[in-house]
Specification:
Elements lengths: L4 E5 L6 H5 L8 E4 L10 E5 L4 E4 L6 H15 L15 E6 L23 E6 L1 E6 L4 E6 L5 H12 L9 E3 L4 E2 L3 H16 L5 E14 L1 H11 L4 E6 L5 E6 L5 E3 L2 E4 L2 E6 L4 H12 L2 H19 L8 E10 L3 E11 L6 H8 L7 E2 L1 H11 L10 E6 L4 E5 L3 E5 L2 E10 L5 H21 L1
Helix pairs in contact: 5-10
Amino acid sequence: MPICSIHPLPYSADPAAFFARVRHAPGAVLLDAGRPMAARGRYDIISAWPEQELQATASETAGDYLQRLRQQLAALGEASLPDGLELPFAGGLMGYLSYDFGRRLEQIAETAVDDLGLPDARFGLYAWALISDHQTQTSQLLFHPALPDARRVWLTALFGTNESGIPESFHLTSNFQANLSQQDYAQAFDKISRYITAGDCYQVNFTQRFQATCSGDPLSAYRALRRACPTPFAAYLGLPGGGAILSLSPERFLKVSQRQVETRPIKGTRSRGASASEDQRLAEELLNSPKERAENLMIVDLLRNDLGRSCATGSVRVPQLFALESYPNVHHLVSSVTGQLAADKDPLDLLAGCFPGGSITGAPKIRAMQVIEELEPTRRSIYCGSIVYLDVRGEMDSSIAIRSLLIKDGTVSCWGGGGIVADSSWQAEYRESITKVKVLLDTLEAL
């Protein structure tokens, strides 16, 4: 099998200097472990100038689009890494599925307004990547065998210089405004409660959107957000026209490594405390909350069923339930569900069978999505979609695009939500939807 070539670079714990050299390039992408501040992530992956840009067309079915991704991945060609080298990506696809790609997978009425106009899906096919491994403290350029020698030489020279460029400033030209008043939120909550009481569903993830007008370089906004809220599944995806997707997600969606599958749903949240004792009290309150544990378990059961569509019979397990993960603004309750891909399935089958993630829809999933469509006035766009890489070996990792912002056409959009169940109170859920993103909104308003 052809082998990728590697060119070592000086290690950098912060990907900003490397990424600044390509941030204006077509298809610029940074998948960011959040180091050195976030501790859980291992790799940063940077690339740009994809061989192909693959955007879902208006009339394309989910199956047709995913098949087009498969074909382009196959056309790039199989490749392996040099012996003894452990890296997550050997050339392949990087991009996003918006939450609204789910309309191509399930029958959902179309009543929410699409006022942002983000394509439902967009991937690049990349034949090179700059990968930093924070465990071994190494940074290297990886070249797929299909990449021409001349481009290898040029990229080696580009990243061999000390010039990184300084991002321009970014600032808001208005304060953030919510698309729902408290009264609107309470009325929607009441309707969801009635659906739950009637047995339509058990849980619905309901969201409000915050928007402000803005000007300047999205990378400056991302760097400020990264400092304020470091997370292990952060990402920056440049968009045509100078916009960008900025994600500070703490949540893994689906990982596939050597055909072993893992998903890590987040369900359950508390604010961080103002003092160490208050913080500890809030963490213990979350860990011991029957309501939060019940919500988490509902989603674990949903994901067990979703994974079962693509995993070998009997292979789905729940090795971790109700673990605490803490971030600068919130504590979260997190579980883990694992499995092994069935012999006749691939990672894109898995993605199609599980998308969108159950932790951000509710249960049962399709009915929850129908309620979301009825009650949220605007489409979610990138929020609660997924940022994904899938390489030529079949290695995949993906996030749920929560704590994520879209900068497009002079507007920045950010979303906050939470799962509503039978014993929820609208006041607590309303506060939680703001708490989750307050650090992001406050950070940008302070620039």
